[in-house]
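User: I'm writing a short report section on ligand binding and want a predicted complex to refer to. Could you take this sequence and zinc ion and write out the structure as tokens? A short remark afterwards would be nice.
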Amino acid sequence: MEINYWNKAVETMDREQLQMHQLKHLQDTVDSAMKTSFYKKRLGKVGITSGRDIKSLDDFKKLPFTSKDDLRECYPNALLAVSKDEAVRIHTSSGTTGVPTVIYHTQEDLDHWTELVCRGIVSSGCTRNDVFQNMMTYGMFTGGLGLHYGAERVGMTVIPIGGGNTMRQLKLMKDFNTTVIHITPSYCLHVHEKLAEAGVARESLSLKKAFCGGEPHTENIRKKIEEIWGIDVYNCYGMSEMNGPGVGFECLCKTGLHIWEDNYILEIVDPQSGREMEDGEQGEVVLTTLLRKATPLIRYRSRDLAHVIPGRCECGRTHRRMSRIMGRCDDMLIINGVNIYPSQIEEVIMKMPEVGNNYQILVEKNGTLDKLTIKVEIYSKIFTGEISAIEALKHKIVENLKANIIINPVVELHEPGSLPAFEGKAKRVVDNRTSI
Ligand code: ADP
Ligand code: ZN
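Assistant: Sure. The structure tokens for the complex follow:
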């Protein structure tokens, strides 16, 4: 395995040096944050008046958290820490869970973001010889523009098509010999289904790699994509509040996301108590920006659930690795009193070779009880279509779910391509319990 770095000195920085860097930039971040009315008040309440009040990384852990609701209340400008003329771009979150949050960037902020994306792209083995098709939506959503500038700076040939329009995606992929794509995992599975319709043979494509991100996905979804496409899939994580994609990226070792700790302080906390978790223990991802001037964020509660992977990565990078996101705190379903995350269901069903590319989770009220239905597409190549085989497969899925996560849902089987497909972030859970 040949390891390449974009910025070897920083990527392999000694941990002690990295922590000194963090403390210095944390002090600067607090100073910048104090320029906003929000943080002046919030930090003032705990006696902080300037960055010099933070003498150690332990002091830092006494600072209050910033929540998504705080950001929503600050809409649109209350978190802007520079004068408006210094801000060169605005992004917002997708608004998956409510009012979108706003982040301003200076040119320097954008340059830092680009640098992180370059590190991630190179760590996955890509070079200037690659042709990169960016299949994430461009616009206020950070998925498109986020990777774009890094890909150009690495020197890849960029096809900025954005999301959707699958037939055109496949045509461009073929005509320009695309080698790498950036895409949501759900869309990646869908595009594969459309190869035949587009009249494109897999062998006529040069595709070798995909950066998958934008939504939680399990290891079994990664394996499925790698298998059907015959490519390497690297996880790419981020959120608009922390710039966007590129906050964490998997290297060639595929053993977790390197979080760029010269740009962010990473913490994992108990979502209820806020207590710090040990390495390996799952909790909520909390991030602090260290280099962002326009919208500094301190101890931002992302609502994403993950854990720190203990130990060093074989690639030589010293920045800690985080597991893939298990889901968002808000994704948790309570079905007849049992707590369950959609990713637990995905992990079980996507392990089964008879299961196809898509599924949907439907929750309804049945009298006073909750009724859980899991709609699953079957994998056409394996499946014969005999009634007895259909019943046997349904039974097998139910048994696997019962054994692994103690739920007993109704399972419905569907033809390949018949469940709703997604060109951006997938919405696989339909919870009709609260609607009238
Ligand atoms: P929204 O929170 O409205 O969807 P964003 O567009 O900023 O806003 O999306 C960021 C969120 O998307 C993350 O907080 C996370 O939940 C999810 N996400 C992004 N990349 C990944 C990834 N690689 N794995 C899992 N989840 C991801
Ligand atoms: Zn690594």
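A remark for your report: The chain is about 30% helix and 25% strand. The first helix runs from residue 8 to 11.
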